[in-house]
Amino acid sequence: MSRTQHIIPSGLVFAVGCWVAWVSYTQQPADAFLFPRLISTAFVVLAGWTFVKALLGWSKIGTGIPRRMAINLAPGLIVSLIYVFWAAKTLGFYTATTIGFFILLSLYDPAPHDQAKSWIRRAIVTACFVAVMYSVFALLLKVYTPREILF
Amino acid sequence: MEFIYYFGNVFEPISLLLLIGGTIGGLILGATPGLSPTMAVALLIPFTFQLEAVQGLILLGAAYTSTVAGGAVSAILLKIPGAPANIATTLDGHAMAKKGEGAKALQLSFLASAVGGVFGVLLLIFLTPLLAKWALAFGPSHLFWLAILGVTIIGSLDSASVVKGLLSGCIGLWLATIGFDDIMGAQRFIFHPSLGGGINIIAALIGLFAIPQVLTMFAKGRQGDGIEVIEVQKHAIKDAVRELLSRKRAMAIGTAVGSVIGLIPGVGGQIAGLVAYDQTKKFSPERKKFGTGHPEGVIAAESANNAMVGPSLVPLLTLSIPGSPTAAVLLGGLLIHGIFPGTDLFDNHPDVAWTFINSMLIGQVLMCLFGLYIAGMAAKVAQVPQSVMAAVVLGLSVFGAYSVQSSMGDVYVMATLGVMMFFLERFGFSAAPLVLGLILGPIAEANFIQGSMIANATDGMAPYFLGGGLNILLIAIVVASIAYSVWMELRQHRITNTPQEETLV
Fold first, then answer.
1. What is the ipTM score, two decimals?
2. Where are the domains positioned within chain B?
3. Smallest CA–CA separation between A44 and chain B, in Å?
4. What are phi and psi of A91, to 5 degrees?
């Protein structure tokens, strides 16, 4: 795994640690930040050590993100983020879940994509899942979810 | 013997129904590769909101117990451990299945799990009140150090890198401070409106344990089909019982090792199973047969990983310090019902505490009974493609996080933490210490502030927090756990580097 791959996450964690420490030591009332000051000190020291190790190329633990994994992951991650951060609220939970579930299933299902049978199976699995979610959350647990389009 | 008084509560219709449902569901979830017991329990928490505290805990306890045992099904029939706790079971269990002894291996695993599990819960029953009475002597400084101990011990023992483990713990402790300060009412680190009420523990637990699993399944691409389940031949249960009775040594070693390891915070079922397997092999006259399908390998591993379930809850129920990530999730389940474990749990809510513990005892027996009959069916469920599992878990996570307090903010927090954890895990960071930090942060802070007030009115901060026998003992354990992990890491580093140097020469 390249040194850069280790530098990026440890650098980000170190930056967050520095920000936490800066806020803890500068914000008022000081008494409210007594405990954050204590932990932010440890946070910065450990994050700094991790970052220096990454810079020097001493970080060896972890598999990193190999190219193949990134390619496999990207479509699922993008669909999931759109589903969670946009579609669930804008389209409504059940509509977004139906669309998101079907897209994810189609993207990652190893069954042939050129057979009608596989597509019918995916549609049935999606319908069953959304029906179960609706029964459990809407009917049984009475959780009111955003419903913008359809249901 | 107070627990006997509350035994009847377990047999109330709803409680019994939840216990049976949780056990069967847990067995199936446990048999599904990729769904860890911690994740299964975290995903179940939203379903307990409508239930009474004790009923919710019965469901979560049953799921915890049976997912650990259910993991043996895929370990034996698919050679894929359902959970890390079942790694040792794979060694001999799958070899037995390949020899046509799959049914016997499954029966032995469930019987051994039940014996180990019952012993572990009995230990929980008898140790908990003793420790709870002892814990009454704890002051704020001790509770502060205990919370720090909970984070550091898991951070150092449960992570591949000690520094990254401790750093994960620090991140968790910081996340716990987000929101409004309890005493002054000051805003802390609220950089997005979703964080106004702080980070909801349940949403965070779902995100930290479920989302990385979902992304890991995506990262594998289009695969998942083609897993071959070995057909289970019929085998008489009474023969399995006879076999188990003739292997008392493996049973005793597994149960003893699992119980002791369960009491140590941070050391999980994976270690229990592997240590028990190794010790049984050392003491067995048939040690050469281990790895080729020897029943003692299955018995030792399975009795150990279930024996650790009960003792792992001792520090949680007595000192509010979860000994494992799954115990941390159970703590989340207690907190949402307004119940705080620790010294007053047994004084103020004895019905909840004892009914929950009793249900775990009954749950072990039910797990064995159902396990023996539905193992074959559970193995079929394990064949569900990972694409379906990933989409199902993602959907459940979104609905589960939203249902905590009907807030989209919780869904955003869940997803953000989950995606962040997935990437951090790729670089050696660990979710367990982060979760412990998040859960123990408020306990540590409340006791730190309380202790500071006492210290300022008496001898000062240093004598109050660093003086006294118990404080020194707790600090010594914190330092020792870190030092031991650093030593182990350096040793591992040296072992890994040696062959490379030789090759270069």
1. 0.91
2. 2-497
3. 9
4. -95, -15
